[in-house]
Amino acid sequence: MARDVTIPVDVGPAEIAQERKAPTPAQRDVVFDIDGLTVSYGSTTAISRVDLDVYRNLITAVIGPSGCGKSTFIRCLNRMNDLVPGARIDGQVLYRGQDLYADGVDPVEVRRRIGMVFQRANPFPKSIYDNVAWGPRVLGMKKDLDGRIERALTDAALWDEVKDRLKKSALSLSGGQQQRLCIARAIAIEPEVLLLDEPASALDPIATSAIEDLMHELKKEYTLVIVTHNMQQAARVADLTAFFSLEVGESKRTGVLVEYDTTDKIFTNPSDQRTEDYVTGRFG
Amino acid sequence: MRTTFQDELALLEATLQEEGALVLRALRGAINALEQRDEELADEVIAFDDDVDERYVRIEEGIQLLLARQTPVATDLRLVLAILHINLHLERMADYCVTIAKLSKLVPEVDPGPRFVEGFEEMGSRCEEMIRIALDSFGNRDLEGAESLVDLDELVDRANRRVVARILELGGDPEMREYGLRMVVVSRALERIGDHAVDIGEQTAYLLAAEFREFTDASHPSPREA
Ligand SMILES: Nc1ncnc2c1ncn2[C@@H]1O[C@H](COP(=O)(O)OP(=O)(O)OP(=O)(O)O)[C@@H](O)[C@H]1O
Ligand SMILES: [Mg+2]
What we know:
The complex is a heterodimer. Chain A is α/β, with parallel strands linked by helices. Chain A contains eleven helices and ten strands. Chain A is 33% helix and 26% strand. Adenosine-5'-triphosphate is lined by residues 41, 44, 46, 66-72, 84, 229, 255 of chain A.
């Protein structure tokens, strides 16, 4: 029954608790500065006037009811919406001070620096090795490819499970392993930010917990933004949580950012009644 | 394996043990202040309570966040609830130490004889032992240790009764009576500290056996106490 308490002897619990705390606003380093972001598909406005900052080496979760524009929002952060016909983006997304939508910005370069992992693991029908090697090869990162692939798989907490079968098809992996493979694929090209859209929604609790542990590891090196349907997942992993909701007008439903704060605050004492109703399950 | 959650739980438990160590220091300080009529030491004990309270609040807040964010279940849930209760027991103990320290400053200049000092020393060191056992048996998940607290508490209760009997023999001199009144409260505070140590043992048993039961029940005294 006795568990080892893994507290080093030279620091007390107070110091450790302090280290664990999400940094105060003054200590945060802005990666994305989003201002008045509005996205429409044809005549429907998916999200309206979103203002939000994303901070370095923190996990930011985006939660909210289905259709409130979570995926729409996160796709704006690496110009994935460019690929959606009829999508129109207004407002500003600054990435490290640079306007992502300014003339002359290359969306491919944007996506290299800001990687994305999708809800359904989508490995190519190729070997495990080739899946991870694909990005680096395309980008001409040929030096020490084997080492790069091992590092990516190790960082994605998959190496031990696949190191003996790198030439086997990626489709032979379990759902949770495929999802971690996609994370490995995303980090193999050393992005600065990882966007994850419902990365665990197709996974069982054990695979989900592995992905969540992995996110905690990854945030040491990357900035993470995660969309999740699962409120408890946001509560468990995120430093900051953004709650989006649907504002219902005459015949129109538009996604708006209702509240954005530390996850501690959102889940113990949210400021907005709509957030309270959502996190307590009284709505949605 | 939900590492973050396990780390946070371990951190809360470490903070609780730290709070326990502070309570032990407060108790020793209060007893010494009383025995040696050391007002400065008494003031230190009173001020020291802020340190205990700081841990208390930190644990309360930590548990609130853990419950809100991590949805602990099964053994984890019992551990969280046990920490929540033990935290309160420790904080109460520290309050009793403050009571003793305050009373030690109000003692009139009378000499009731060495038997009182001996009585409080006995109760104080028995309480210290109980706190140590309560904390260790919780930390080591040791049911036997936790259950042994009941018998130790019986010794504190007996010592309390002896002290009260001596107080009744102090006679009618107003200063002696004032001294006696104050010392009844001191003795009672020590006796309550022992009770809280038993309550911590009950939390350990709850954690291990998944079922809460009182070791003893004041409203249904065991034959021994009757
Ligand atoms: N490619 C698209 N073309 C047209 N409309 C779209 C497109 N993608 C999203 N929408 C619309 O934009 C709104 C927001 O959708 P979005 O997928 O961003 O929501 P979501 O919060 O991610 O929902 P879910 O939780 O169900 O994934 C919805 O009304 C949706 O129908
Ligand atoms: Mg979506």
